[in-house]
Structure formats: structure tokens, C-alpha cells
Amino acid sequence: MNDNPIILAIESSCDDTSAAVYFDSKIRSNITSTQLIHKKYGGVLPEMASRLHQQHIIPVVQEALDEAGYKIFDIDAIAFTRGPGLLGSLLVGVSFAKAFALARSIPMMDVNHMQAHILAHFIENPKPAFPFLCLTVSGGHTQIVQVNDYLDMQVLGSTIDDAAGEAFDKTAKMLGLPYPGGPLLDQQARNGNPLAFKFAEPKVDGLNFSYSGLKTSVLYFLQKQTKTDKHFIQNNLADLCASVQYTIVKILIEKLLKAAGETGISEIAISGGVSANSRLRKEINRVGMQNGWNTFIPRLEYCTDNAAMIAMVGYYKYLNQDFCSQKISALARWPV
After folding, report:
1. Tell me: the pLDDT tens digits for 152-180?
2. Separation between Cα atoms, residue 19 and residue 113, nearest integer Å
3. Please, what are the domains in the chain?
4. Alpha-carbon distance 35 to 56, whole Å?
């Protein structure tokens, strides 16, 4: 076993095909091909996504190797996303990794996508100290995780229905914004009044989340307003976006404050696609300063799906000799 391995990592959980190379405590390359065609349909088409992964995976891996300056025969191990995600998309990455490992007679490390989002904080400095709390927010997941070590994590709270990222995208669609709506809603919100409109804030016991009630609240409000003013959304778009964003982020922050209070942990991080949201990033820093937290926010490159974060989990699994067999299969659902 090589004490300083060169690791190839593969991410294919949704519509981004990504490959990265890790060596000597550094990400040497991180290449991602995004499937823009899904914008046309207002959401990711699973069958199309998996077929496009098949087209992209070899060129993306080759580009990652070229940028890092390595050849196929230099790779000591391969890490890959096993789940959670779209089953067809995952199968492409899993199958590629198994074939690559078999051809090279090298070990494989299967990686949980959500665990990888958390370990994205160890790609570069500054890095949180253990234990820390990580608010992990994406299109499919909203969780507060207590991270005790690189591979030792405990979910303290999660969504009981919809995720924060889904709430962003679905409300953006109601407002007439194209897919993916979350980032566009964020852009519009920067010119709006976050207190212009009030929407429901579902109350859930403990550290769990709920966003289905918020989506319903926005829908009913828009239906009522547009009955008498068909231009209501167009004339109030920035304020609507700002108010929706304010409500989604407020729910996240309140639960995170509760988790920090209950655990006594002051090392606080955010991760996942929604951690790219400008208001969430500002609020984490603001609340962190008020409460004496050490806050950690990943670079935008490492918020969205990427193979660099898969490489980080793969590295720590490699050190533990936590390898998987060729019998492994993709898991559409796989809790942290």
C-alpha cells in the first residue's frame, strides 16, 4: 500500500460529470462537465442524464489526468460516488470505476455524496477542527451533521419532506424563472426587499426541517395576487425573490443556532449546492460573529457537485484501508 497515493475520483450523482486527481495533500485537477440541455426541460431528465454521463466520462477523466500531469498507470486507487443520487447516473460512474480498478488491479473506495460535501472543507485552508457542525444543504438534502472525525458523522436533524434546494428551485419556477431557478432567484433577490412579503415558516420539533408548507404558502399567495393583477409577479419579482430567500435562510439559521446551543459546538460549517447562496453565506458569517463561532464556507467551486470532494473522502478511506469489492452496486438512497 502506497503511503502517499495518487487517487482518481469520479462524481456522477446527478447531471454533472466530474473527475479529479489528488496527490500529496493537494487536488491536482478538478474537471466538471455540466449538462446544460436540461434547462430546456425545466429540470433534470434522468434517462438523458445517464446517457450524457456515458458520453462525457472518458473525456472528463482524460482531461483531469492531463491537467494533473499523470497517466492512467500512475493511479494508485480510484474513489467514486456510490450514492445517493439518480440511479442511472450513478451506475455510469460506478461501472467506470469498477472497470478502471479491475483493469489496473488497484483498490476502490465507494463514497457517500453527502459525506463528500462535508469533507470539501478539507480541500484547502482554513479547515474546521473536530467536532464541528455542518449544515449540509442541497437540492435533495437538508441536514445538520455533527462531524466527529473524517469518517465519523452523526445526523442531528434532516428534512421531513422537501429540501431547501428544492424549495428554492420550485418557488423560482412559480415565479417564472428558468431552470436551475435557485441561483437566478438569488440574483434577483439582491435588488429586492426581504421583508416585503411574509410566507409560512413551518414549525418542526427538534432539529428537523420542513419546506413543503413554505412552497404551498408561496403558491397560494401568488394565485391570490395574480387573480386581480396579472402583472403582479413581473412588477414585484425582486421583492418576491428576496422574501422567499429570506424565509428559507431564516429557517436554516434558526435550526443551526438551536443545534449549536444544544451541542455546545462553536465550529460551524456549511456545504452543498445551497451553500453557494449569497444570503446564506452572509447570514452564517453574521450570526457566527454574534455567537463567537468559527465559521467555514467553501469556495463556490466546491459547493456544487465536484469530484475533488469525492477525492477527499477517498483519501481518508484509503488511509483506513476501507476498500470496496467489485460486487458493489449504486445506491440511489444512502444515508450518511
Report:
1. 999 999 999 999 999 999 999 999 999 88
2. 14
3. 7-119+303-319 (3.30.420.40), 129-298 (3.30.420.40)
4. 9
